[in-house]
Amino acid sequence: MKIAACQMVSGPDVGANLKTARRLLESAATQGAGLAALPEYFCLMGQHDSDKLALAEELGHGPIQAMLSLAARELQLWIIGGTLPIRAEQPGRVRNTTLVFSPTGDVAARYDKIHLFAYDNGRESYDEARVLEAGSQPTAFDAGGVRTGLSVCYDLRFPELFRRYNPCDLIAVPAAFTYTTGEKHWELLLRARAVENQCYVIAPAQGGRHENGRRTWGHSMIVDPWGEVLAVLPEGEGVVCADIDPRRLAQVRQQLPALAHRKL
Question: Which N-terminal stretch is annotated as signal sequence (predicted)?
Fold first, then answer.
């Protein structure tokens, strides 16, 4: 299966973001992809964290989910819908949710971001817990024979989550890494997760200078189970594609059967 990572530089205009996402998904389909993934917060990079609260949708209802469902059905794609805000039980909070849509347009999986990002270096400060309610359930699904484990952005730093998905063929990491942390850690962590789990990794990212002044690292990429970067887009909107090769998965696992050697 050919897979596609869509990179965006989302802003505060939800309608414009949805149009861009649809255009990138169409590009992925035109290039022959059977699965396409959008970045974290593809639908909104607002001026304030609290902007997500007004945009939050009920599961199964809303324009963001409607766009993803229609695109999946019309383009005959598996779509990993980056993340969108889904209403939480706790007042004043939302879930940062990945919804997966099958080529029928139906929801095939839901994952709520488990690890919430916090960072303060004196110049930049982030604390997702101000508006997000953390998830708790690892989630995997089958995309036409490709077993795929889900994660979001900061989850990448917690390898125990990805161990829960073994064996899997693909790990998805939609993200909006900051420029500061991404420059040092993004590729390093993605390649490590691919190598230690002997699977492909697809990482669609936000990549550029946003209207709210934030700069994200980008470098959306696809990594193979040996840690080789198959495709990467440094910055700006676009799509990168690569093939998942079952023979490559089998070869890596046979020549270095690390997963079979696990003791803990």
Answer: none
Task: For residue 113, indicate whether it is catalytic.
Answer: yes
Pairing mode, strands 220-223 and 215-217: unpaired
- pLDDT (tens digit per residue) in 135-166: 999 999 999 999 999 999 999 999 999 999 99
Tell me whether residue 168 is one of the annotated catalytic residues.
Answer: no
Domain boundaries, the chain: 2-261
- Tell me how far apart the alpha carbons of residues 114 and 120 are, in angstroms, rounded to a whole number: 20
What is the per-residue pLDDT across 100-124, written as a single tens digit (0 to 9) for each?
999 999 999 999 999 998 878 877 7
The single-letter code of the amino acid at 16 is A
HSE of 164, CA atoms in CB hemisphere, 13 A: 14
pLDDT tens-digit profile of 37-73? 999 999 999 888 889 999 999 999 999 999 999 999 9
CA atoms within 13 A on the CB side of 68: 27
List the catalytic residue out of 6, 128, 133, 153: 153
Superfamily name with CATH number, domain 2-261: Carbon-nitrogen hydrolase (3.60.110.10)
List, in sequence order, every residue forming a beta bridge with 216; answer none if it has no partner. Answer: 178, 208
Contact present, 20 and 14 (Cβ < 8 Å): no
Catalytic residue among 43, 52, 113, 128: 113
How high is the pLDDT of residue 71? 98
Is 237 assigned a catalytic role?
Answer: no
